[in-house]
Amino acid sequence: MIALPPLSLYIHVPWCVRKCPYCDFNSHAAGAGLPEREYIAALLVDLEQDAALAQGRPIATIFIGGGTPSLFSAAAYEELFAGLRRHLVLAEDIEITLEANPGTVEQEKFRAYRALGINRLSIGVQSFAPEQLKALGRIHGRDEALRAAEAARAAGFDNFNIDLMHGLPGQSLDDALADIRQAIALAPTHLSWYQLTIEPNTAFYRDPPVLPEDDTLWAIQEEGQAVLAAAGYRQYEVSAYAQAGRECRHNRNYWEFGDYLALGAGAHGKITRHAGSNRGASTPDTQRRIDVAGSALLREGGVWRYAKTRQPRDYLAARETGRFSASTSFVETEALVFEFMLNTLRLRDGVPAALFAERTGLALTMVADTLAALRREGLLVDDDARLACTPAGFNYLNTVLQRFLA
Fold first, then answer.
1. Residue 306 host element (H or E)
2. Cα distance between residue 77 and residue 56, in whole Å
3. How far is Cα 160 from Cα 339, in angstroms, rounded to an integer?
4. Global pTM?
5. Do the Cβ atoms of 83 and 90 come closer than 8 Å?
6. Domain architecture of the chain: domains with CATH
7. Which of 51, 96, 138, 265 is a plausible cystine mate for 87, CB 3.0–4.6 Å?
8. pLDDT tens-digit series, residues 360-374
9. Which helix (H) or strand (E) element contains residue 286?
10. Which pLDDT band, with edges at 50, 70 and 90, does 1 fall under?
């Protein structure tokens, strides 16, 4: 029987002050009015419908993302957390992260957030350079970014992340390294450092900025990682660096192919079901697809993905109709293999090989030939007990992953 993995909860707040030109997330400019009370009420109805998906498991981590969740008041989150505790079991050592912008208004709320039990902040700085902040459409300045870290610490947050981007329009190697050094000087416990990419359905896609050449991007990556390592920030995932013992537990659960409930407009979830639970909850169409698969395992249980309706107005309306769901899909065998590798091989140290069967219910022998070939080519570590890339494989991760699609 497929094992039930650890369970997290993702909550999406879709509003921000202004949409950034690079952002392809489900975020919307708040405008004159922020429907805070209405949205919390909708989240609580959504929660009531989904609570049974926990299947008795405690919630190990919560991540409140956006948008800009720090636009909401502490009173709103107090009401939300009361509802969470009514419907779910929260682990005693739960990690609760809230994304925040460095703006002064948000900083004033930090102490109240901490008093509610939020114990980790993720501060969206992106850059400390005024010209880069302007190019990215950010509404905060360098001084606010610097004050945000101190405000977090003063409010009682001894665990916080700084989001930082590189490969920005007109950015040089020295510019990028200056951003990293400034971030390190603020002593966050965690840094998310990732390259700007131009995504469809963004302002940058419609009017692309001039980005650094590939040689500059490579130099930024290599030298930036060396600076971070020298300062005690270990890269444990493609774009995640942490001080010892301060890895993001919520994101690790994603990368270790754990489960997560999803609340909020456009939120995505992943749920593993035990034997018998599929038949009780599935539609005739999904049950037909399980039966066609011809596997006893898939008939008895498996992995599902689901998404909530994306537009905030539709999500708010679902408070009355109960129609929060936009899609539910069973993860078929071929996709299950790829999704497991897509997540777990992002981790620098990979995962125990036994986790493949625990999380998917499949035998690792079904990809034995692919694993053996990647090991011969020096792209996976030569260790039958672990699934992990070598340094070369980590640098060419997309090439490694493509092999699991063949």
1. strand 302-308
2. 24
3. 29
4. 0.92
5. no
6. 7-253 (3.20.20.70), 335-402 (1.10.10.920)
7. 51
8. 999 999 999 999 999
9. helix 284-293
10. low
Token readout for 179 is 């951003």
- 59-66: strand order across its sheet: 234-237, 240-242, 190-195, 160-166, 120-126, 90-100, 59-66, 7-13, 259-263, 268-273, 302-308, 325-330
295 CB contacts (<8 Å, ≥6 apart)? 333
The two structure tokens encoding residue 361: 């219910």
Beta-bridged to residue 193, according to DSSP, are: 164
pLDDT at 263 over 50: yes
In one letter, which amino acid is 370? T
Q: What is the pLDDT of residue 249?
A: 98
What does the block give as tokens for 26?
Answer: 């489900």
pLDDT digits (tens, 9 = 90+) for 302-329: 899 999 999 999 999 999 999 999 999 9
DSSP for 104-142, please give it. Answer: HHHHTTHHHHHHHT--EEEEEEE-S-HHHHHHTT-S--H
What is the residue type of 273?
R
Q: What is the pLDDT of residue 169?
A: 95
- To 5 degrees, how large is the angle CA 279–CA 284–CA 285? 115
SS3 call for 38: helix
